[in-house]
Specification:
Elements: E1 5-10, E2 16-21, H1 22-36, E3 44-46, E4 51-56, H2 59-67
Parallel strand pairs: 1-4
Antiparallel strand pairs: 1-2, 3-4
Length: 79
């Protein structure tokens, strides 16, 4: 599959953190695909439109996790 876009989205609240067009992201995408060979399947997703989504943590969720470390034990902590 030819990738067209690289998106960053929060894995907790689904907020889009940013995106990079493929022409600008070719090297980044290669590195992410290399990471996927290890344990990247937990944070990389592909869609049929040619986009790769990196599941990261937005600033608000990161701050919430720092203030409430017990949230790490929960599979889904945002309602």
């Amino acid at each position: 599959m030819k990738l067209k876009n690289l998106r960053y989205s929060c894995r907790h609240c689904n907020t889009e953190v940013g995106s990079i067009p493929f022409a600008s992201a070719e090297e980044v995408i290669r590195e992410l695909q290399r990471a996927e060979e290890g344990n990247g399947e937990h944070f990389l997703e592909y869609d049929d439109n040619g986009s790769m989504t990196v599941r990261c943590i937005c600033e608000q969720c990161e701050q919430s996790l720092r203030m409430n470390p017990d949230y790490y034990a929960l599979r889904k902590w945002i309602q």
